From TrEMBL:
Domain annotation Plant heme peroxidase family profile: ranges: 36-172
Domain of life: Eukaryota
GO biological process, one term: cellular response to oxidative stress
Enzyme kind, highest EC tier: oxidoreductase
PANTHER family the record matches: HEME PEROXIDASE, THYLAKOID LUMENAL 29 KDA PROTEIN, CHLOROPLASTIC-RELATED
Name of the molecule in the record: Peroxidase
Keywords in alphabetical order: Heme, Iron, Metal-binding, Oxidoreductase, Peroxidase, Signal
Native organism: Mycena venus
InterPro entries according to UniProt: Ccp1-like, Haem_peroxidase, Haem_peroxidase_sf
Pfam family, one: peroxidase
Gene Ontology MF term list: heme binding; metal ion binding; peroxidase activity
This protein's record includes keyword Metal-binding: yes
EC nos: 1.11.1.-
Family per record: Belongs to the peroxidase family.
Length: 498
């Protein structure tokens, strides 16, 4: 599994999105195989992911899961309300470190488990395309040779093609409004599902083998568009027969859908699979307050039912202030937060959040911190120190100040404290703005900060402010102070203790 060395905005964000429902509203939408448009949300998400991947060309190493689908909606291949609706589900997810492509891939995983299917490992780090890819999504009226060629280009053999189509067509169906030339007869609710069961299972396979299937891509009156029939029968049903075993179906589908979402341009390197992080530093804030530096931090621990107490330690940045073992504070609050359905499938049912609020000496400041965890069962306390490297605070020159910032209906006036700006300084923020329901992609704007007349200098800091739109998902502050460049990712505007 991927190792989390704080700070790591990509892993940090993806872990939250995968395993804490509060951070990814969309992670809950596909649960219980919930309905939409007479199909299921899960079916829409899985189709979206396949169509995004289908631009991959394994010979040139281009295309794949890159969210280029957002530029490809006008193609007949991508017809269907579910495409745009799905992207709108994911709208509030990405920030400048996590692209829409990662979120589409996460959607595919949540779709499969949400409908009772197998758990697929998630790797992160996909890069979003800035333009449309080639129009290479297979279409039902194409012949078998074209489909074999398409799947080969995407990196799948003929056998894998049969399996992947069966896995995908476990969910959802064909909508008459979208494909009137396939759905030539009127059907209730305007959709013919591929299988008689709603969930992610191999009924699509067993009904095909038994000859009871109503899948219109197998038995529809339009013979030209019987693409599933041509694909499923292309090896004399050998592969379909092997998928008649539910266990084998789940195993093959987990593997192939996993490969599908990990199909990325050759220039992209994905992380190792991201599992729930045991001990995660989260939601840190450092800012000047009343003659000291307030340092707020939370240690998130997977809840194992142990009644733990946690102490935070830290070291000065300059000079001597703390005892040799470090300054320390106990946590001031322990709360429990829920785990996502995906996390529960990995044995994680909840998280404990141990929060700290330390008053740091202004002149000696803070350079690094770590934790001591006591299980209160007679065993020796153990240290949590970022896998041996401690949690290092890069700088205390440019700080986001949540106390001096003020929230408005339309967003906030963000306030940044800058230490000793003896010469000219320049403060900006790269703000990631969420997309709209018609253009579901994030964009970035630069906010320029000005000296904040309502917050006079204090504690050795001067304060700069800029309005930030309420559509902002995340900000990274960039400042040049006395010739040195600093940057600070601000994923959270608030923390326990502010
Ligand atoms: C030759 C390859 C394929 C063809 C020709 C094909 C064709 C189609 C068509 C015509 C529909 C109906 C869409 C609508 O009515 O809006 C559909 C739905 C769907 N396809 Fe495929 N498909 C192929 C491969 C795949 C693969 C590989 C996957 C995923 C692994 C997949 C997943 C789905 C899903 C989940 C739906 C249901 C969508 C819903 O109910 O909203 N398809 N497909």
């Amino acid at each position: 599994a991927a190792v989390f060395h704080w700070p790591d905005p990509l892993l940090d964000t993806l872990d939250d999105q995968l395993y804490r429902p509060g951070f990814s509203p969309a992670s809950t939408f596909a649960l219980n195989c919930g309905p939409r448009d007479n199909s299921t949300i899960a079916a829409q998400w899985l189709r979206l992911a396949y169509h995004d991947m289908a631009t991959h060309d394994s010979t040139t190493g281009t295309g794949g899961m890159d969210a280029s689908i957002v530029f490809e909606f006008d193609r007949p291949q991508n017809i269907g309300v579910g495409m745009l609706e799905s992207l709108v589900d994911f709208l509030v997810a990405p920030n400048e470190y996590v692209g829409m492509a990662d979120v589409i891939a996460m959607g595919a995983i949540n779709a499969v488990v949400g409908c009772g299917g197998p758990v697929i490992p998630f790797r992160g780090g996909r890069i979003d395309a800035t333009e449309a890819g080639p129009a290479t999504v297979p279409e039902p009226q194409q012949d078998l040779a074209s489909h074999i060629a398409s799947f080969k280009a995407q990196g799948f053999t003929e056998t894998e093609m049969i399996s992947l189509v069966a896995c995908g067509h476990s969910l959802g169906g064909v909508r008459q409004a979208d494909f009137p030339l396939i759905m030539t007869e009127d059907v209730p609710a305007g959709i013919q599902t591929f299988a008689s069961t709603l969930g992610f299972d191999n009924t699509v396979v067993t009904e095909y083998l038994k000859g009871t299937t109503e899948n219109v891509l197998v038995v529809g009156s339009n013979i030209t568009t019987r693409s599933d029939f041509r694909i499923f029968s292309s090896d004399g049903n050998v592969t379909m027969q092997s998928l008649a075993s539910p266990d084998n179906f789940n195993q093959v589908c987990a593997d192939l859908i996993g490969r599908m979402i990990d199909t990325v341009p050759s220039t992209v390197t994905l992380t190792d699979p991201i599992e729930p992080i045991d001990f995660k530093v989260w939601n840190t804030l450092l800012f000047p307050q009343g003659g000291s530096l307030a340092f707020l931090a939370t240690l998130r621990i997977i809840d194992t039912g142990v009644n733990r107490t946690v102490t935070m330690f830290w070291k000065e940045r300059t000079g001597t202030f703390c005892p040799p073992a470090g300054c320390s504070v106990p946590s001031f609050q322990v709360t429990t937060d829920s785990a996502s359905f995906l996390a529960t499938l990995k044995g994680v049912t909840a998280f404990k959040l141990h929060s700290f609020n330390a008053a740091i000496d202004l002149t000696t400041s803070i350079s690094q911190f770590w934790f001591e965890v006591n299980d209160n069962d007679g065993s020796a306390p153990f240290i949590v120190d970022n896998n041996g490297v401690n949690y290092t605070i890069d700088q205390d020159v440019v700080l986001f100040d949540p106390r001096r910032s003020s929230f408005t209906i339309g967003g906030l006036f963000m306030v940044v404290g800058v230490k000793d700006p003896s010469t000219s300084i320049n403060v900006t923020a790269l703000t990631t703005i969420d997309g709209t329901t018609t253009v579901p992609v994030t964009s970035s704007v630069i906010a320029n900060f000005e000296l904040d007349s309502s917050n006079p200098p204090a504690d050795g800091y001067m304060f700069y402010t800029s309005p930030i739109s309420g559509k902002s998902l995340s900000n990274t502050i960039h400042a040049t102070v006395n010739g040195t460049a600093y940057s600070l990712w601000v994923p959270f505007l608030d923390a326990p203790g502010v």
